[in-house]
Write a structure and sequence with these properties.
heterodimer; A: 5-stranded parallel sheet; B: 7-stranded parallel sheet; 4-stranded antiparallel sheet; globular
Chain lengths: 228, 401
Amino acid sequence: MSTVEEKLAALQICIERGKPTEGATHPKKMMGQPGAVELTRQLLAEGVGAARILNEGMVPGMRVVGQRFQNGESYVPDMLLSAQAMKKAMVLLEGALKKAGVEPKGTFICGTVEGDLHDIGKNLVAMMVEGNGWNVVDLGVDTTPAKFVAAANEHPEAVVGMSALLTTTMPAMKEICQALREKHPHMKTMIGGAPVSQFYAEEIGASGYGVDPWAANDLLDEWFDAKH
Amino acid sequence: MTEEMTPREQFHAVMRFQPGVKTLRWEFGYWVDAMERWYTEGLKRSPLSPPPDLPGGAGVIGEALPWPFPMSLPRWRDNDVHTFCELQPGVVRIPLNFRMCPQFPMTVLEEDETTRLIINEDGGKQRVKKESSSLPHVLEGPVTDAESWEEVKEERFNTKDITKRFPPKWEEQAKSYQERDYPFCTMSDGFFSWSRELFCIQNQVMRYYTEPDLMHDICRTQTEVYLAVYEELFSKVDLDYVVMWEDMAFNTGPLVSPETFAEFMTPYYKRVTDFLKARGVVSITVDTDGNCWKLIEEFLKGGVTGLYPFEVNSGMDIVKVRKAFPTLQIQGGLDKLEVAKGKAETDAELEKKLPYMLSQGGYIPYMDHLVPPEVSWENFCYYRKRVNEYIDRYCQSNGSG
């Protein structure tokens, strides 16, 4: 393996299959091979730009995993392992990206709504979105409308995502959408979670609905492309 | 014929798909917020009504869920809706401890205005809300690696002193259970959910890939503990029903692949279900919310006989499931969101499902999870009256009762 293209392709595979380092025991078939961290380090040392490493090596890998998840071909462990590999490799890239003036696509504010303490779905969305080049502001769980509004005030160009797992906490999404509309009428919002639906999104005036983490990501990209 | 049966006999008959037997009139339960709404809309309170300090979001358990319910969250057993809607006696659970024994001492690590950070009785670090019964935010399990698992196994999760997992004066209680006319059950974690409790989910699921031997050892130990508990139980009393709690699916699919389930869960389920079936247990049902379609085949291979509650909003269509899996015992599957809309929508939902499902047998109809406060008392009464009418009209004998 010697060319930059080959290394970028190998990096994509490491992200796709969740191999963070050479010493990682998973996947078994890749034991002893360089992982995402080693390949990123090598590419940087060879003078490959951080943006190219991100956009041609890492993001495509996360995209494959996200789409497989959407198609029911991969599952939560696959997503978590890929996100973990990406996160470890990104540590090497962050400084270089800043130096090169590469900006994130935008800011995505996310949180589980007030009264709800479930976060696995929200965390998966946050990982996917971050892996796709967005700056993520994760408000955590049990997030009040006031906290969502405060975050929106700090990041007025952001997109806001809300998650709920319980039918009894869904109504909080309506309250949050209303509060955001009053302060930031042009701000895009999306919702997700077990009890919600496209129909509910329309009912409460949310801009969109993400049926799964990659759908949420796709929607963000759609809005980003429309804006630019 | 059905009228002469005890609820226990009726449960056995329904679970065995016996022709000519009407199914049970049960519900899953209600959010306390729903019941508080209904008390203002005509439901009468009684001395057995949920107490006023039951926090918002608490579940008021119906007949279909084992009572007493094993989780430490505030719960209540419904009596008022049961009486008004003429529902039948529900499942009674023997409160066995299938988890940590001895338990960890409950410890409050810190608290703020609305939440507490605690170590719970199974050693998990969780943030819980003070004024509500929302499921806790699990931050960390008691197991973080192979070493901490060995400690937990040695000290709290093994087959030493199995009788400590039984309630006090267990042998006396066993005699009263022998005379029962109700379905009698146990409830435990399944082979996914206990590992989730040990690790917390984000740390658990990756380990099926990165530390398979550890995950197998956990399930193997869990199997040995369960079999030892059941040996003791069956030495004194028989059992009708076992519920195993998993909650292992999102609204779009399971948390792990069928292949992962096949390797890490099916063989352990099989050992336990074989043991139970050989001792006359008529239903071994898994409680899993979400879209569990892809796992049904593996559950059946593992010897599981039934599932509930079949959440409609997650794509669980009980008619399609019945056609694909003719011998699966099915409970639930009626769309609470349609009932909330009104009588016409309720009629459409029930007509779409009940004539077919009731005529096939092996089915107990109820709403697909706790009834939320969006459902009015008027709409709930209408729904329940109609379900009872369908039950009277249809059972498994060439399509009508």
